[in-house]
């Protein structure tokens, strides 16, 4: 499966356009919520595994319960990998999965779009 594809948006096939809409809706569902994009950005910046406590410190305004919940959802959706080390006290690290890293070009495009939109509105 090719992760980046050029699209012919002048598609006459309504089923294909519906498929695109459904795929986009599914992708946005995986990323929806106040904290998921923030978490993903922090994991991109970490460039490798990061401990839970470090991640929590880097995200202003998030509480531990919400961070755990969002990380569990991202792990379930295969965006984040969780590694537990059997030691006392427990050591847990998080990092982006291959699927998470594949979000890079899309995240970059969204950032550029958001900055362009912000410039036009201001």
Automatic annotation (TrEMBL):
It comes from Zymomonas mobilis subsp. mobilis (strain ATCC 31821 / ZM4 / CP4). InterPro entries: HTH_HxlR (IPR002577), WH-like_DNA-bd_sf (IPR036388), WH_DNA-bd_sf (IPR036390). This is Transcriptional regulator, HxlR family. Gene3D superfamilies: Winged helix-like DNA-binding domain superfamily/Winged helix DNA-binding domain. Residues 11-122 form the HTH hxlR-type domain. SUPFAM superfamilies: Winged helix' DNA-binding domain. It comes from the Bacteria. Keywords: DNA-binding, Plasmid, Transcription, Transcription regulation. GO terms for molecular function: DNA binding.
């Amino acid at each position: 499966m090719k992760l980046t594809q050029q699209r012919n948006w002048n598609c006459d096939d309504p089923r294909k356009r519906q498929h695109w809409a459904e795929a986009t809706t599914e992708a946005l569902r995986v990323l929806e919520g106040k904290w998921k994009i923030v978490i993903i950005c922090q994991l991109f910046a970490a460039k490798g595994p990061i401990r839970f406590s470090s991640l929590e410190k880097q995200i202003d305004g998030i509480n531990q319960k919400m961070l755990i919940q969002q990380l569990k959802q991202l792990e379930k959706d295969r965006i984040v990998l969780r590694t537990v080390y059997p030691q006392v006290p427990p050591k847990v690290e998080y990092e982006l999965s291959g699927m998470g890293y594949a979000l890079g070009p899309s995240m970059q495009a969204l950032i550029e779009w958001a900055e362009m939109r912000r410039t036009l509105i201001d």
